[in-house]
Amino acid sequence: MGFRYFSLTAAAMLASALCAQTLSTDALPSDSGYGRTGGQNIQPFYEGWQRVADGHIVMWFGYLNRNFDEQVDVPVGPANQFDLRADMGQPSHFYIRRHLFVFKVDVPDKWPADRKLIWSVTAHGRTSSASGWLQPEWEVDEGVIQMNIGPGGAPPDPPNHAPAVTVKGDTTIAVGRELKLTASATDDGIPKARKRAPSPASAVAQTPLPAAAAPPPRAQIGLRVNWILYRAPETGGSVTFDQEAPRPSVGATSAELTTNASFSAPGMYWLRAVASDGLLETPYDLKITVLK
Fold this sequence. Notes:
Immunoglobulin-like; 4-stranded antiparallel beta sheet; 2 helices
């Protein structure tokens, strides 16, 4: 029995070519979002609500800076505001990647359970928002906060309490001069050092993520203090600290960091000293006026 040959019609040939073209582009686009060093927006996050010791309620917010390198400044105002009132204590300087439980907002008395509080930030032409309300499943306490901020695992027993922080430093400086700042923390010495069993070697080789897409390291247990820029002037400006945050000291009951800060431009800055024991953080915000 002989073989039979078939010829493609023009329409079939066109369909075949289109199919081949479709298959050849069936892949992730080159602009997949990995390795974006800058130009991306800020995504606010609602972390949950908490009933504090005196009975009133606070809502917690954080953010994701989608960039892997660019720190973004968005002044408080039309591009960085809450719907209740523009300024609710939010940052205007956004460090890279994800930051949890950055600030809390006191909810007015008799706030309706279904009423939303919305924080919106516009950066690089894109507006993103976070909506918070008092849904029961979103109630958090210090235990929940510790499990999110810390390296994982259940909160310690006996219970851990947040460190206290005090600050010393002038609040007025001229451009080009260094401002000496000292932040001191005291703590209950909890959490203590924990011994972890060594992780078994994985038998399955995993494809490594691009360097910029690797998840950030989890928090380190131990007491330390550090300084950050919380708000820059509306006209722009940056701050440089000559001392980085020290290594955390596990089980310590006191810590201190003295640093010199220098400012690139005049204006009003808010600096934040953060005392952390690796599970809970306590901020102290210091207003600095930088003169010409």
